[in-house]
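Dissemination and training. As part of the outreach component of the grant, students in the summer workshop were shown how a complex can be specified as a set of sequence lines and then modelled as a single object. The example used during the hands-on session is reproduced here so that future cohorts can follow it. Participants entered these lines:
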Amino acid sequence: MIQSSDSIRIKYFSLRRCFTYVSLILAIVMTYWATVAVEFSATKLFEGLPYMKDFLSRMWPPDTKILPRVLTDTLLTIQLAWVSTIIAAVISLPIGFIAASNICESVWLRRVTIFFLNADRAIDSLILALFFVSAVGLGPFPGTLALAVHSVGMLGKLFADSIESIDPGPVEALRSAGAGKLSTIRWAVWPQVAPHFISYFLFRFELNVRVAVVLGLVGAGGIGFLLTQYMRLFQYQKVCTVILVILVLVMTVDYFSSKLRRSVL
Amino acid sequence: MGIKASSLSKSFDEGKTFALKNVNIEISQGEFIAVIGLSGAGKSTFLRAINGTNSPGTGTLEVLGQNVTTLSGKSLISLRKQIGFIFQQFNLVKSLSALQNVLVGRTAYSPLWRSVTGCYHAADVALAKKTLDSVGLRGRYDEKARHLSGGQQQRVAIARALVQEPKIILADEPMASLDPKLSEVVLDILAAVNQQKNITILVNIHVLELARKYAKRIIAFRKGELVFDGKPEALTEAILEEIYHVDKATL
Ligand SMILES: Nc1ncnc2c1ncn2[C@@H]1O[C@H](COP(=O)(O)OP(=O)(O)OP(=O)(O)O)[C@@H](O)[C@H]1O
Ligand SMILES: [Mg+2]
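and obtained this result:
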C-alpha cells in the first residue's frame, strides 16, 4: 500500500519536473525566435545613437511662440476626455446594475451584458477612433465617440463589481421593511457604491486624457493632432513644446484626480 | 390575526435535511416570545419564514390573516410593511444618517417618488424623529450611522422597525453583537413596545437567562422541530438537556 503510493508520488514529481524543463526550453526558443522576428540588433541601436542625439538637439530650445495654440488644443483634449467619460458613465450606470448578480435575476441578460462589456474592452480605442473618423470625419467628435464607447467596457465592469461586493445587510433590511426594488437600490445599494463610482469615473477620466492625446495622432482632434502636424513638417522645436505641455498635462491631471479620489473614498 | 403555522416545513437541500420540520404553532397578537435552540436549529429560518424572506416551504403559515407561503409581489410587500425586522448585525446603511436610516422604514408607506428622492412626507419625518427620541437618540438625527456605537446603531435599527408601526417585530439575536448590559437595553425597549403598543415580539435569544427574564412564552427548536412551547417556568433541566444536548453524530 505505502510502497505503491510512494512510487506514484515519485513518478508524479518526475513528470512535473520534465514538464518544467520542457517549458523552460520552449520559452527560451520562443524568445529567441521573437527577437529575430523583430530584427532586434544592438549594433543598429548603437549606430542610431548619433541620430537620436541630433534629433534631440534640434528639439531644443522649445518654441514658446506657439504656446497659446498648444494650450487651446490641450484644453480641447481635456474637454474631449471629459465629455467622453461623462457619456460613458451615464451609459455604464444602468449597465453596471444589469451586470451585477445581486441586482439582476436574469442570468441570461447578465451573461449577454457581460459578454458585450468584455468585447468592448477588447477593442482598443485607437481602432474605434479609426472607425469613427471614417464614419463622421476628422476632428474631436470621432475621438469623443471612440473614448466613450471604449470606456463603457471598463466602467460597466467596475460598476458591476462594486455593486456585487456591497454589504448585503442593508438590502435585506430594506426588503424586510417592504421596500420595492427601486427604493432598495436607492437606499441600500447606491450609498454604498457611489463613492466607488466617483473614484472609477475620475480614474477613467485620467486614462482618457492620456488616450485622447494618442487619438489625436489618427486625426481625432486635440493636442495629439497638433503633434503629428509639427512632426510631419519637421518642426522639432514646436514638437518639443507640445511634448512638454503633454507631460505637464498628464502629471497635473494624475495629481488632482488621485487627490480627489482619495477624498471621496 | 396573529401567527399560525400548520405542518410548516422548510428544506434548503431538497428534502435531505430540514431547517423547519412539521412546525405547528399558534401565536396571538401581543405576545412576547423568546425563541431558543442550538446554532442551526432553525430559529432564523422560522423568523424569515414569517415575513416571507425565505422562499416558501410546505405546509401553511398564516400571518396577520394572510397565507405567507402563497404570497408574492404586492401582497407580500403589504404584509412585510406591517412586520419590523431587527438583525444581529443591525444592517444599517453606514454612510447615511440615523434619521435617513429610520426613514427607510417608511418607504413602503410612501409613494415611489418620495422614497426614491428621499423627500419624505413631513409627518413621516416627524414620526421618525419621535421614534429616535423614544429609543434615547434625541438630537442624534444627523449623525452618520458609522459614527454611532454598536448599541446606538442597534437602537437606530429598532427605531427603523418601530417607524413601520408594525403589528409584529421579529428580532434575530438582536443583542448578540452587543455587550451584556446593552442586551438588556434592547430587550427593555422591545418589552416596552410590546406592553404599550401590543406589538407581537418574537426574539431569538442565545442567553437563556434573558429569555427567561423577558419572555412570557418560550419556544425551542431542535433540528427544525419545535421541541418546547410553554411558560419559562416549565423549562426543566430535562427539557433543556433535550434542547441543547449535542450528539456526537452531528459533530
Ligand atoms: N439560505 C440558506 N441556504 C442553505 N441552507 C440554509 C440557509 N439558511 C439556513 N440554512 C440551514 O438551515 C438550518 C437552520 O439554520 P438557521 O439559520 O435557521 O439556524 P439558527 O437556529 O438561526 O442558528 P444560529 O443560532 O446559528 O443563527 C441550518 O442547517 C442552516 O445550514
Ligand atoms: Mg440564526
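The pocket of magnesium ion (ligand 2) is lined by residues B 43-44, 172 (CB under 6 Å). Students were then asked to discuss how this feature might be tested experimentally.
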